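== Polypeptide entry ==
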Amino acid sequence: MNGDTREVRSGGGFADLSKVPRELVLRSQWVVWKAALRNGKSTKLPVNAMTGRLASIDNSTNWTDYAVAVRAVDRFNCEGVGFVFTDSDPYSGIDLDDCRDPQTGEMQPWVRIPAKEIAHPDLMSIKIEASSRWTVIR
């Protein structure tokens, strides 16, 4: 882990930044995000952590290092930090939305897939976490 024990707002709760894998912290593929409503649904708008303007996640000049992104959360009144996955890095991620009961934490039956079934044999590790609202598994 990276040693940063700061928490940032994240989806209505707080995210413990000490749990961000070091391999991701070392890459300059970070943006910050703001919550917004789009077509009546909540969404996360990527924000350039250096300028505070909306970011294009397809444009690497909009990305920055982890430390700058963490500081930008307060600087630009954002909700959290986000890692940008690319075809050129060895990482991938999935979000399983609305898969947990926010009160009990119980997962929906369709989520109960063993990690070994979604992990590629060449992967060294898999990280599973719940969102701050306990409704999303990443």
The chain has a mean pLDDT of 76.
